[in-house]
Design goal:
Blueprint (H helix, E strand, L loop, with lengths): L2 H9 L8 H12 L4 H11 L3 H10 L12 E5 L2 H5 L2 H12 L4 E5 L11 E3 L2 E3 L4 H10 L1
Parallel strand pairs: 1-2
Antiparallel strand pairs: 1-3, 3-4
Helix pairs in contact: 1-2, 3-4, 6-7
The structure holds FE2/S2 (inorganic) cluster.
Length: 140
């Protein structure tokens, strides 16, 4: 995490109301994590306490304190996707992921009527069966 990049991210949101969450997302995207140094810099820039910033960081699962270099596949395991069979196909995905791919459980990707759903990067994949989910994991 470079201070220059961190300062640039914070400056890009200068004067914006409710800047904390957008900045945190940008930091997570740029560095793969929001570490203690980023929390301190953000607290100082936004005139918040470190506890306030840390409270937000630790509340949302999108923010992680350490970078994980593995590719990530997010699999929705919320109620609609459960009703549409995600629990029957998750085992094959876990086996395909092994330790190479981070298989992350999320709760709703916004396509509830067409589950089971997964997301890789910015793209959401719908109506997955076991073979399609395994293929996503293998190609991640
Ligand atoms: S419950 Fe899975 S996308 Fe909404």
């Amino acid at each position: 995490m470079t201070k220059a990049t961190l300062d640039q991210i914070i400056a890009s949101h200068a004067g914006r109301d409710g800047a904390l969450l957008p900045i945190l997302h940008d930091i997570q995207h740029a560095f793969g994590c929001v570490d203690a140094a980023a929390e301190a810099a953000l607290a100082a820039a936004l005139n918040l306490s470190r506890a306030e910033v840390h409270g937000v960081v630790s509340f949302y699962h999108d923010f992680t304190p350490d970078a994980d270099p593995r590719p990530e596949v997010q699999v929705c395991r919320a109620e609609s996707c459960k009703a549409r069979g995600v629990e029957a196909i998750i085992g094959a995905a876990e086996a395909a992921a092994g330790s190479r791919v981070k298989l992350k459980t999320v709760y709703c990707l916004g396509l509830c009527s067409s589950g089971p759903n997964a997301r890789v990067g910015e793209r959401v994949y719908a109506r997955l069966d076991s073979a399609a989910l395994v293929k996503l994991v293998e190609n991640a």
